[in-house]
Amino acid sequence: MNLQAKLIASALCLGALPFAQAADFEDFGRVVRVVPQTQQVNSPRQECRTEYVQVQQPAPQRGVGGAIIGGLVGGLAGNQIGGGSGRSVATAAGAIAGALVGDRVDNADTPNSGGVQEQAVKQCRTVDHWESRTSGYEVTYDYRGRNYTSVMSYDPGERIRLRVLVEPAQR
């Protein structure tokens, strides 16, 4: 190798010297202990149940058509039967009797009260539901005779991969 090549190689080596002072590499440490870090989380949920309650039903509507027609027919019949001054009394009595009979015939199948019926009622309430969730792991590991502790997002197992940074000590 000639002198000029040696000088260039030496200059390059001297120029790279600051970059060679700090280096990093990967190594492994032995895991000594792993402690899961947990937190309590509330996830409220709905609990529902169905109850059956008795409800009073309203009375059904009664028809009035039978009473009206019965009153008209009874009034006409009373007017035909009665004579003289008793005609108006007979007409009124016939209208009342006809209205009563017409109402009973028209509403014969209609109950007087609504009765009681069971109805399903859904009742819900919010209940707290607490769960323990793992948020990370406190990992203690041994590297070259010294213990180190770090919090990690996963359990590394029996050994942990480490990035080792080597730098010269500062005065």
Automatic annotation (TrEMBL):
Domain Glycine zipper 2TM per the UniProt entry, residue ranges: 65-105
UniProt KW NADP keyword: no
Organism: Duganella aquatilis
UniProt keyword terms in alphabetical order: Membrane, Signal
Record Pfam families: Rick_17kDa_Anti
Keyword Membrane in record: yes
Record InterPro entries: Bact_OM_lipoprot/Surf_antigen, Gly_zipper_2TM_dom
One annotated Gene Ontology cellular component of this protein: outer membrane
Chief location bin: membrane
Annotated localization: Membrane
The protein's name: Glycine zipper 2TM domain-containing protein
PANTHER family per record: OUTER MEMBRANE LIPOPROTEIN, PTHR35603
Signal peptide from the UniProt entry: 1-22
Membrane-crossing residue ranges in chain numbering: none
